[in-house]
Amino acid sequence: MSDAFRRFAVNRIAMIGLAVIILIVGAAVLAPVLAPFDPNEQFFEGLTIEGAPLPPNATYWLGTDQLGRDLLSRLIFGARTSLVVGVLANGAAVLVGTILGVVAGYARGVVGSVIMRFTDLMMAFPALLLAIALAAIFSPSLLIVALVIAMVNWVQIARVVYTETTALAERDYIEACRALGANWPRILFRHIVPHLVPTVLVYATLGIATTVLLEATLSFLGIGVRPPEPSWGNIIYENQTYFATAPWLVFIPGAAILLLALAFNLVGDGLRDALDPARQGR
Amino acid sequence: MRTLMIAGALASALVCGTALTSPAPAFAAEIKNGGAMTVTYKDDVATLDPAIGYDWQNWSMIKALFDGLMDYEPGTTNLRPNLAESYEMSPDGMTYTFKLRPGVKFHNGRALTAEDIKYSIERAVNPATQSPGAGFFGSIKGFEEAAANNGALSGITVVDPATVKIELSRPDATFLHVMAINFSFAVPKEEVEKSGADFGKKPVGTGAFKLREWTLGQRVVFERNSDYYEKGLPHLDEITFEIGQEPTVALLRLERGEVDVLGDGIPPARFLEVKGNPKNKGLIVEGGQLHTGYVSMNVTMKPFDDVRVRQAVNMAINKDRVVRIINGRAIPANQPLPPTMPGYAKDHKGYAFDQTKAKALLAEAGFPNGFETEILANNTDPNPRIVQAIQQDLAAVGIRAAVKTLAQANVIAAGGEQQGAPMIWSGGMAWIADFPDPSNFYGPILGCGGAVPGGWNWSWYCDKDLDAKAAAADAMVDPAKKEERTAAWRDIYLKIMEAAPWAPVFNEQRFTMHSARLGGPDAIFVDPVHIPVNYEQVYATDVQ
Amino acid sequence: MAGYLLRRIIQALLILLGVTAITFILLYLLPADPARQIAGRSATAATVQSIRQQLGLDLPLWQQYLRYLGNLVQGDMGRSYIQRTEVASLVWSRLPATLLLMAGAIVCELVIGLGAGIIAAVRRGRPTDTAIMVASFLGVSAPQFVVGILLLYVFAVQLGWFPIGGYGTFAHLVLPSLTLGILGGGWYSRMTRSSMVDVLRQDYIRTARAKGATGGRIVLVHALRNAVLPLIAMIGLDVGIFMSGAVVVESVFGWPGIGQLTWQAIQQVDIPVIMGVTLTAALFIVLGNLLADLIAPLADPRIKLR
């Protein structure tokens, strides 16, 4: 394990990614200190006399939004929402998806069949609709958003893990282990799960980006974070049609999402290389 | 009143404004008939059945395909006979006799008779038709029974093939407006029976245009009805409605000359830029409209059961700022009626913006530290923005309102539950008048009749006294008493503002943008009854 | 094989049944009242009641559901509350556009994904690899509507290479397909690279190499065949992603497909249409999964059909 850590630590690209993540997490934690303004305050002087938002300027470094709020402050506070949803919801999805995928792929039989048929059902179910129904039934909150995302996202991971587990389980050496009477935890944790780690990591890292975007979609549907609370997703959604007249309102938060996703991807990639000794010497 | 389906339609609801003040347009002799135009819409065209269609999009399309006994002079709100050549009202206002115009034919070639008028109204009342407009015919004799059974109205008599007599059960000053409303438009029985529930997709009427093509989800094409009874109309040979066009994309195409009229209006995101561009001078027409955006407060829910709290809300909202946020596409409001509606109280000052006084009133009502509540709003731009502006103003006086933005139908459903919604911002679901009469803003949205489960009176405000006054005003059918009736309605709305179940915020202005090749007086482009334009009257300037 | 197929088809039908049941219950729980919606604002209580009866909305949930299923097996998905048109004909009229868009997107993502993935794997560790991987991250992380609007603005509005939205010709298809395909392309290039790197390191490739097979041949013949397996599984899953993505892409480009119909129905709470499009989407997703499972053994003989 320490080897892996060392390999990870010398991966320059991964370290850059990690630095970005730490930076964003830091900004989120220190938001009240860092943000120049109250993120929800609608400034009278934050709009032109005709009511148009201001482009980046000396007072509002990243400009203002349609209501005259400071975009920089909203971005800094929005990082909290995006991170909380991204990490919690995606984490839950990955955990559930991996467990069910491995169980289904390894156990097969009735258990595997039931799990996979359930994932089929969930896969066949358009996620958006589920979200809307939940919106109408529950009152919207951060927790509901995380829940909905986890409910939607675990399926994909379960399917991929299942496919890989199946392929792994059919390899000759696993069959041989079974024939030799190795008990299932040993086979699972020695011979199967380690091979899954790269895939799960790739999915977990990429999944954070998808999660942030899904959170944005849900915010837009009215079951995301309640306005005026900012998240990077709802900043984009609030302003998406203004891309031509006020591009900073779409492309700056868009860049923030990209940066966060990219950082998680780089770290995930680095972890993957570090954890899989076979990949040494690339 | 129809519901505004989307908020992009800030710029596309029923209008008076410039239209009311300008005289009926005189059409110059140099108009050449012919040519075509393209109109874009984002959403599918719902049914074109006049008994059913009830949104701002199909409302005017239906008017181009069908006609009623009455109509309005183009570009105005002045009633005039249409399929009727003339009409007579009995002195007591209980009986109307309409003489039909000779030589009117349906698109299938058959001549219109008085039977068709009777059939068409009864069809709208028949519950099997599922018409959202059945209730408009409530003053016709025999309505209750007809609405519960098969629609057969004892009050409508065919005197001879060219004469129809309609008896009322109560005097109704708005009755002639009802005869100009789409739900009363003439449909041919044989075609309705042939098409069944699909009549809305295969409409056959008497209008200036007839349907040529309908490709679901892509386009609807109208062509000239060469048998149209009004000679010289319509001016255009063809109108193509392109469906599924995002307003932003539609605007780009208009700038490129591929589109003539933006059905959904100028997208809010590009409004200032487009309006400020000198190239567009003369292409953007502005008009007032019969619309009010308001915050309803549920008077049956605490703490809005206290009139002082409701008044405080009225004083807390900075309406000028809200108007600025939507780029000045509205004017601040202080009463339910819009300025261009008869009965609007010009001198009424309303509740001036005064947060100190609002706080004092809240303290007096027992909320020195304010309270927590919830405000619902439609989730299409610009409504989430507007409601956040209102939220900040309310917070300034201590009212901490959580914002909940939902699809239109879900907001309406919550409003129809007695404990469903403490406050609702009406934008995006705002009412546009069915006809330019002050009574149209009362009944279902402020009267006792609407304050029932599933009703449309979201403030649940019900004053039996005012209901009686409203009924009395609508019984003033004598044209000589018109002023008196208008005054009676004015008083009713001022009384309502004392109780303050609404906080009126603004009246929207309508902006229509058209291509340079389209001609017609400005009033045609902000026609009070036709949205986005009066299809019959508009013409192409590039016809050779 | 025939037995397997039959079993899978039965499974697929059960899934669709499950989808109808869940959707039906969720939509039943929505607060909007369809009868009120149809009857309009000026309706009397009697009219509303009569409409409720005509639509069968006064029945208990299970009876309504059975009624829906009964109509469904006869091909009747009911009528739209808003448009009053048969849902089946609405869905049918919009299906070709969405299928075309999906086909375009699949081509885009395969071309992008396989192309970029193979190049990255072969050149792994070099600047080309890094550049491709960064680009794939960007493709995966970019919000679809931002990509769509950006493409529209640059290539249609500014450069005028493509029409500004609409439907009909090949030129109309390019930008929406690309928008929908970029996400998958990003995923695929990562997947391809990752499995190619694995495969290239495996013994039989080393053997082939030792036997003197040339680099290009190794990649194409040996490695690619094995790298395709994860992609096949992905294409099946993609149908679901497409169905959600279509909602965004079709509305940005004015593409008259199922996605647009879905968004419209959701906004209008047009329950029969929501049921119809959900079921249609589910049908295609199930077919996609089935197809993926059938094709997988062809790509990798080590997988057996069960």
UniProtKB/TrEMBL annotation, chain A:
Keyword Cell membrane: yes
Identification of the protein by name: Peptide ABC transporter permease
Transmembrane intervals: 12-35, 83-106, 118-138, 200-225, 245-267
Xref: Gene3D superfamilies: MetI-like
Family: Belongs to the binding-protein-dependent transport system permease family.
GO biological process: peptide transport; protein transport; transmembrane transport
SUPFAM superfamilies per UniProt: MetI-like
One Pfam family cited in the UniProt record for this chain: BPD_transp_1
GO cellular component terms given for this protein: plasma membrane
Main location: membrane
CDD domains (UniProt xref): TM_PBP2
Entry membrane topology: Multi-pass membrane protein
PROSITE patterns named in the record: ABC_TM1
Localization, UniProt: Cell membrane
The ABC transmembrane type-1 domain, residue ranges: 79-268
Keywords linked to the UniProt accession: Cell membrane, Membrane, Peptide transport, Protein transport, Transmembrane, Transmembrane helix, Transport
Superkingdom per UniProt: Bacteria
TrEMBL record, chain C:
Domain ABC transmembrane type-1: 95-296
SUPFAM superfamilies in the cross-refs: MetI-like (SSF161098)
Top-level taxonomic group: Bacteria
Pfam families tied to this protein: BPD_transp_1, BPD_transp_1_N
Locations listed in the record: Cell membrane
Gene3D superfamilies reported in the protein's UniProt record: MetI-like (1.10.3720.10)
Keyword Cell membrane: yes
Descriptive protein name: Glutathione ABC transporter permease
InterPro entries noted in UniProt: BPD_transp_1_N, MetI-like, MetI-like_sf
GO cellular component labels: plasma membrane
Family statement drawn from the similarity comment of this UniProt entry: Belongs to the binding-protein-dependent transport system permease family.
Transmembrane segments: 12-30, 99-122, 134-155, 167-188, 227-253, 273-296
Gene Ontology BP, a term: transmembrane transport
Protein topology in the membrane: Multi-pass membrane protein
Sorted UniProt keywords: Cell membrane, Membrane, Transmembrane, Transmembrane helix, Transport
Keyword Ribonucleoprotein attached: no
